Amino acid sequence: MFEIPSSQKIDFLSNAASIGLDLADMAGRGVALSQCRVFFDFDNTISKIDVLDDLIERFSIDRKWRLLEQEWQAGKIGSEECLHGQLRSVRVTRHELVDYLSEIDIDPYFHRILVLLKSAGVRPIVVSDSFNFLIETILKSNDVHGVKILANRLRIHEDRLTPVFPYRNQACLRCGNCKTSHLRNEDSFGKVLVYVGDGLSDCCASLQAHLVFAKDTLAGHLRDKEKKFIWFKNLRDVYDGLKGLSHG
Hints:
Elements: H1 6-19, H2 23-28, E1 36-40, H3 51-59, H4 64-73, H5 79-87, H6 94-101, H7 109-119, E2 125-131, H8 132-141, E3 148-157, E4 160-164, H9 179-183, E5 192-197, H10 203-206, E6 211-214, H11 216-224, E7 230-231, H12 235-243
Parallel strand pairs: 1-2, 1-5, 2-3, 5-6, 6-7
Antiparallel strand pairs: 3-4
């Protein structure tokens, strides 16, 4: 079983996060899944589509959201400014929103991952720059319950949506939800951090993780940073990788 003397543990984990580990590294050290904390992005990772983008496009009364999206993609504005601007153009009631969200499917292998993690005593954490209400509604409609979600908040009044950002980092305005802070908290002390994501909002947090499953924009970012990652097409690839760690 993988065991590091306490005097060396912090240095090892810090160095491992900076360069990244792959499954061979984990297997060589006998890392068990029970020693990990596992974080998931939501849009286009657990869900089959980017729900927030689709929602904004579907319910916007104008096309101002497109310009804001381009500015965010280019790094000219942060996601908090972007989402405030985009949601000002959205018109949807709570009832209409729930109906829409209830039709969205998640990757079916997320259910298998939850069973696998539970058997190892690991509680997964969803970290998202989207909104709790959206994620909770989708997971509930897909019969997923009890998953910890750290995301932005949403106020709904008649047909208007107002974003709230309880996890923003005042020192860095790039993301509305500072995912890095969730990986760095005290519960992560001495744990092997596993991250699964795909997009721009995952870039900072993934650099803090030891083992990263990545695709799309995130994969390109980690390749540029010369950090190891495991490319995944869907959550079946992630399930297969985690299953190999289940017993160390």
